[in-house]
C-alpha cells in the first residue's frame, strides 16, 4: 500500500489557477476552431466512423499513438479505457455518426492496475452513506469492471461489447482491441 513519502504532493489547483492556465492556453495554443458541420464538410455523414475507447492516462493518447487528427476518430476516455463506463456514450455517438468500427485501447502500467479491492472498500467506507445499496453497488462495479486486468481486460471488454443487444451487428463485428506497451509505444492487437 502507498505510504506518504518525503516527496511533496502536487498542489491542488484552485479555481483561479485553472482560470489563469486557461488564459495562457487561449493566448498561446488555442487553435482556430470550426463548427462540427464545417469540420465534417457540411454533413455528419463525413464525420468520424471510428470510435476509440481509451484510458485517460496521458501516456495513452490515441491521437498521438495512432497519428490521428480530430476528424479521423471520436475518442472516449475513462480510467482503464474500460467498455462498461462507455456504453451509453457508444450508443449516443453511433446515433449521430453511423460508426463503422470500435477500437479499444488499454495499456501496461495503467493506474487502475494499482487499484485493489481493498482500496475500493476503504474508499467506499468513507462515503457519505457507505452502507447504502448504491454505495455497495458502485464499489462492486469498480472492483469487477474498472480495475485493469491487463490484456485479459481487453478480451473481456471485447466480449462485453459483443454481448450488447443495442449495438448493430456490423459495428460489433468490426470491433478490435489493442494493448499498448507504455514503455515502447508499440501497440498489438488482442484477439
UniProtKB/TrEMBL annotation:
Which family does the record assign?
Belongs to the beta-class carbonic anhydrase family.
Co-factor remark:
Binds 1 zinc ion per subunit.
Does the keyword section mention Transmembrane helix? no
- Species name for this entry? Tothia fuscella
Q: Which residue ranges run through the membrane? A: none
Q: Which UniProt keywords apply?
A: Lyase, Metal-binding, Zinc
Q: Which InterPro entries match?
A: Carbonic_anhydrase, Carbonic_anhydrase_sf
Give the Enzyme Commission number. 4.2.1.1
One of the record's GO molecular function terms: carbonate dehydratase activity
Name it.
Carbonic anhydrase
Q: What class of enzyme is it?
A: lyase
Q: Could you say which cofactors this protein requires?
A: Zn(2+)
| Chain residues that bind Zn(2+) | 55, 57, 107, 110
